[in-house]
Structures are given as C-alpha cells and as structure tokens.
C-alpha cells in the first residue's frame, strides 16, 4: 500500500482540471521543481492511479444529440450470459457506459447517438440480437444537469487500495 500525500493530490487535481498542462506549469502549481513533479506523476502512472489522459469532446457540436439510459435484463444472470453480453456491448461505440447492476435490471447502459433512428438501429440490430437479453427499457435524458469527470479527492491525502 502507498499513501498519496497532499502534493500528490494537488498534482492529480491539477491534471484532472487540465490534462494538457505542461510539467513545468504543473510543478509550479504545486510548488515543486519539474524533475520531482515528473517523478511523482510517473510513479502514480506506474501505481495505476493515473489510468490515461483523454480529450473531452462536445457531443452536441458533433451531432450526437440523443443521450439514452437503457436498462437491460437477461434471461439468467449466470457467468456465461454476463460474459456474452459484456463482450457484445464492449464492441459498440455508441455505448458510453455500462454497469452491472443490482435491482430490477441486470445492466444499465448510457448510449449516445445522433437521433432516434440511430437509437432504433442500435436497439433492433444489435441489442435485441445479443443472446440472453430478455427485456430492454429506455429513458431519454432531456437535459444534462451535471457532468463531471474529476474524481473527488480529499486534500489531506489518500491511502491507495488494490483494485
């Protein structure tokens, strides 16, 4: 186990806010010189704390206007059925998120598509054809009230746990 100190947390918060920040600017923002700052970032990457850096795009500008949450139930919640479903969903680019759930549905998907026709195509040509799917319920997001990617990190530090 390793503990991240206040400086590590400050580095992570700065990187969550702007992943394109230069090492020099990052070091300056957390009161370090560039080499120790770089070494801390590298160590956190090696520990798996930093998974990857991405660029967030604006869906509406790119024509992706329909954000849908889809609850999927399977005929049986057995390992083979779960694996088949997860493999099939993992190949679909319009599936932004997929969670194995407790409660009424087995999975919750967040799907992003340009229009209703594309959603119909996804559901009829892909989702319903996955072996073991027994029920599909969709809910349309009318407005995104909050969306964030930055994780809430305690400023005093974090003891890492195994994944």
TrEMBL record:
Keyword Methyltransferase in record: no
Pfam hit, one: HTH_24
Entry annotated with the keyword Mitochondrion: no
The organism's place on the tree of life at top rank: Bacteria
Start and end residues of each HTH asnC-type domain: 4-65
Alphabetized InterPro entries for the sequence: AsnC-type_HTH_dom, Dimeric_a/b-barrel, Tscrpt_reg_AsnC-like, Tscrpt_reg_AsnC/Lrp_C, Tscrpt_reg_HTH_AsnC-type_CS, WH-like_DNA-bd_sf, WH_DNA-bd_sf
Keyword terms: DNA-binding, Transcription, Transcription regulation
Protein name: Winged helix-turn-helix transcriptional regulator
